[in-house]
Task: structure prediction
Amino acid sequence: MTLFLKHIYYFLLSSLLFASCNQKKEVEAKQKEQTVIEVNDSSSISKTAEDIPKHLTTKTRLVILGTIQDAGSPQITCKKLCCEGLFENPNSRRKVVSLGLIDALNNTTYLFEATPDIGSQVKKLTQLETNSESEMVDGIFLTHAHMGHYTGLMYLGKEAMDSKNTPVYSMPRMKSFLENNGPWSQLLVRENIHINALHSDSSVQLSSELKVTPFLVPHRDEFSETVGYKIEGPNKSALFIPDIDKWEKWSKDIVTEIRKVDYAFLDATFFDGKELNNRDISQIPHPFIIESLKKFKDLNKTDKQKIFFIHFNHTNPVIDLTSKAYRLTTLKGFRIAQINEEFEL
Result:
């Protein structure tokens, strides 16, 4: 073989080896990038790292701390497929609906809803605020007196944390309910909590660049009124409406309100109302996801992407990221809220 041919041979060989090495590195990089998200005990779905919100450690932000309806998942006595295996092997992603608010400029944290999962939710939220030394949030905002939205307050009492004047923000009827009914009244007698009264459409200024505004929504108000919240940060804003009877019953136009904000976390308790075969669903009205899809169909792509459905009954099929209901909802441009997602404000 001539010297020239040898040079050609070695050049081609090195080129092939270089290409093979690069291809291998690309495959390895993609494999490392891929993160498996647990769906349930028998199935999983993959998301790339870029699909998963990164921790914005120096930013004022919201974090989803729970997505499930009041009674949790699995729900007591449930024998349906949706809860199969979850009593023996609980899914750590199935926590009752709650949002956390981190004010990075002032090293403070706030909780929206006091759920039965408040212990782990407070821990998660205060750990995310890396500059805070406190193990407790700086305030709790309540929406109404249904079990998944306020009963976590019991863990602030004598038998548990025995907290000292934790600020709780509530509307007048909710405030009266807590003050005049045990065991909640004991929290006030012992000064475990201090209630800051809210008024509809009147803002609470938490800092120079952060405010929260409650607004009344129609719901089953047996013990208190029900509110949603508008949360406004330095740069962006969000709606939080975990419970409402039907969009048409509200005095405000939900489509208009969505267009005003950057994120909208909206009641999606049931997918289509066919999930309950032993309950009269007319007695527990909520906007079905299929109703919301129809109502929001004329929103542009950007506005649809603002919507994160939340507050899922244990029977709601969108909890399973492999379900037809999940694929239908997301293909139409909407999102299903996932625990630990973060959103810059």
Q: What stands out?
A: DSSP finds nine helices and 16 strands in the chain.
